[in-house]
Amino acid sequence: MTDDQILLTYKFTNAYRASDRVSQYLIKNIIYHGDQSPEEVFFRIFLFKTFNKIETWKLLKANLGEIAFREYDFRIYDRILSQAKSKGQTIYSAAYIMPSGSTSFGYKFKHRNHLKLLEKMMADHVARQVCESKSLQQVFQLLRQYPMIGDFLAYQYTIDINYSELTHYSEMSFVVPGPGAKDGIRKCFSDYGGLSEVDLIKFMADRQEEEFSRLGLNFKTLWGRRLQLIDCQNLFCEVDKYSRIAHPETTGLTGRTRIKQKFRLNPDPINLFYPPKWGINEAMNETMYSPLKGKK
Questions:
Q1: How far, in Å, CA of 252 to CA of 53, rounded?
Q2: Residues 234, 181: contact at Cβ < 8 Å?
Q3: What are residue 39's phi and psi, to 5 degrees?
Q4: Is residue 129 part of a domain?
Q5: Rounded distance, CA 65 to CA 84, Å?
Q6: In sequence order, which residues have a C-beta less than 8 Å from that of residue 123 and are 6 or more positions away?
Q7: How confident is the model over 66-116, as pLDDT tens digits?
Q8: Is residue 41, in this structure, part of any structural domain at all?
Q9: SS3 130
Q10: What are the tens digits of pLDDT across the range 21-50?
């Protein structure tokens, strides 16, 4: 618990990306639930992460039953999402800024453009190409070539795919700093010492134990799994957000000055589940303690 009014007022992510509520839902209820063929796993991941909203996934399931590419019909998906929009429902998460894609696919409503983007990726057999990739960076480059997917989204999608069995790459092998992370780095370092933002994220990840010890912080690992590059990238984003309120005189490159999302307590517990290939579910279950239950 905390008495920090900034943390109590605004929404921040967990230090471990995979422990966030949305990531947990993705891992447990989407990636490792249902048909495990590469095509279906990729379809579910990309569909869910396009909207990045648990309520939108539940809306689709309530209307479709099983969500599967083999039964995909643009008209049906469009009707469900359009009806939700007409009722004033928000179908996209506010976590990411999603491009409209109107210049790429020509539709007025961006959910139609995103459905068409997904159709194109499925037609291009991207799932197979992901499975044949040789590195996390190659997956990123594969996704990055598609319209409406910039560096930030391509990297986030790459990490989400890497939670699955489609790829087996270390999260310490590749990182792409987003705009928020770049702002956070700028606010942490007055002089980069000739290092790039990527170098600084790697430096933070490499030195985490030494710095925790130096600062007297009893920082918990994720049942033996230390902060990865994606986690450190996200932490710089959260530093940027926090400092907008705590240190408004310090500006970042993007010039953002407020935090849009307010914190609202969700009393539903999170029954933690991580990619089985990480080998930490067993250790977690042995402790019989879930650090996120009832906590922010």
A1: 28
A2: yes
A3: -60, -45
A4: yes
A5: 17
A6: none
A7: 999 999 999 999 999 999 999 999 999 988 888 888 888 999 999 999 999
A8: yes
A9: helix
A10: 999 999 999 999 999 999 999 999 999 999
Residue positions counted in the chain: 296
Can you give the pLDDT at residue 133?
A: 98
Domain assignment present for residue 285? The answer is no
Query: Which residues form the domain of 84?
Result: 34-162
* Amino acid symbol at 215: L
What pTM was computed for the model? 0.92
Residue 39: both structure tokens together = 């095509």
Tell me if 293 sits within 8 A of 181, measured CB to CB: no
For 79, the 3-state DSSP assignment is: helix
Q: Mind listing the pLDDT tens digit for each residue in 198-215?
A: 999 999 999 999 999 999
Report the domain count for the chain: 2
200 contacts 189 by C-beta, under 8 angstroms: yes
Q: How far is CA 280 from CA 71, 225, 285, in A?
A: 35, 8, 9
